Amino acid sequence: MLLVNIIAVILTLYLAFSFIYFAYILYCASKARLVDIENKISATEYTNIFNIVVYAHNNEQTIPVLINALKEQEYNKEKYSINVILDNCTDDTAKVLEICSGTRLWRLNCEDGQSKGKAEAIRWFFDRIFINDKSDAFVFLNADTTVRPDFLNRLNEKINVKPVVSGITLNKNMFTTFVGRVIGYRKIFLNTVIYTGRNIAGFLNYLNDDIFALKKDILMQVRGEFNTKNNFNFELPITLSNMGIDMYHSSDIRVFKQYFESTDNVLKFFNNTNIAKFVL
């Protein structure tokens, strides 16, 4: 009987804690939306000069879609440039980009022919351009994503409020199948409500590798985080937090993966997902 009472007390405490926690997260998410609305008008007063950095490794099939989407932005064309880092590509990515035009290519080639990874590729890129670059902010994208025409306009609004912005990743064709719709709505809920609420509450220490942006002055202070193969999308937010710099997780900044939902992709999604980060 005593054991049953102990279990009952533990379950009651757990349910009470869960209710309070999620109620607080929902409150913070709603607060973030109100702040977004208040800042929307004032945040567009300054038009940033963006340096868009696209990381590519054997992405000949997807990168033309992204580059065309970037060239068709509603943003002032004189206010952004597109740089593509080709990390030991063995396919025809470079040839495809030469046909597309409108980008500056940076070829990272090594004797062993192995990909260096995004962190080291970005560091290599910065060593060559950072001092003379005149941009206000850097935007980082992966070559297997694409964006909507208002992407840079939305990003300009957010980065004028916070110097570090992280967005969300959805699947380009997520609503074409039942499984895709389930996963799609789940991602939207997690990013729009849970992640946003956790960010405002100070619980979220994760940078979306697919889309993030930093003001140049902040980037100068954290360039060291790109000197390692370690998981910088977890380490960089910790460094920023220790420096007293807030990261803005915005569900309005969206990129879209360029593939259809399939059974294989669903299995990969769940195998690569850290369930713990969705709970606390």
Could you please describe the fold and organization of this structure?
The protein has 280 residues and is an alpha/beta fold. The chain is built from 10 helices and 8 strands. β2, α3 (93-100) and β3 (104-108) form a beta-alpha-beta unit. It is globular. Mean pLDDT is 79; it is low at 260-280.
Sketch the major β-sheet.
8 strands, mixed
Sheet with most strands: strand arrangement = 3-2-1-4-7-6-8-5
* Euclidean distance between termini CA atoms: 32 Å
Average pLDDT rating: 79
Tally of DSSP helical segments = 10
Structural class: alpha/beta
- The gyration radius over C-alpha positions equals 20 Å
Strand tally = 8
From the structure above, extract its key features.
single chain; 19% strand; 48% helix; alpha/beta; 10 helices; 280 residues; eight-stranded mixed β-sheet; disordered C terminus
Write a brief structural summary.
The protein is an alpha/beta fold.
Secondary-structure blueprint:
Blueprint lengths: L1 H42 L6 E7 L6 H9 L8 E8 L5 H8 L3 E5 L9 H12 L7 E6 L2 E2 L4 H9 L4 E8 L6 H24 L9 E5 H7 L9 H11 L4 E11 L5 H9 L4 H4 L1
Parallel strand pairs: 1-2, 1-4, 2-3, 6-8
Antiparallel strand pairs: 4-7, 5-8, 6-7
Helix pairs in contact: 1-5, 1-6, 2-3
